Amino acid sequence: MASLPVRCQSGQAVWTYVGPLICFHLVEKHQPDRVLRQFNMLQTPPAISYTDQRLHQIDLRGKHDQDWRRIHAEHIGVWNSRYDFRVEAPTTSEPTVSENYFVWYRSITRRFITQEGAFYHCMYDFVDEVQNSPWNTI
């Protein structure tokens, strides 16, 4: 980060803002806490994120005269306080993830798409274990 030009570092406070980004009728949550490694920060398991399902039901059909400031006042309020909603984590060079990150990651990730992929992975682990076994005399 220090090697970046000053103009690239000037928006750093906004990079780490966790909250809604608003463009008229669209509201999307910005979640840099899920990509801390991009900012040379220690990645930890992210907090559970909730999305207001009502936001997904908004479209512009027949709503050209809507007052979006009123409709999204709550989200605009969070944006106006964006410096209070920043993710902070220790900067690091190695390792880039916390000890419990991969435990969390494996619990929410599908590791294999096919049974064949899982089979090859298990066989590879088995062969590796046999080859590295202290009882292996081959």
UniProtKB/TrEMBL annotation:
InterPro entries: AminoTfrase-like_pln_mobile, MAIN-like. GO terms for biological process: meristem maintenance. Residues 9-106 form the Aminotransferase-like plant mobile domain. Signal peptide: none annotated. It holds the Pfam family PMD. This is Aminotransferase-like plant mobile domain-containing protein.
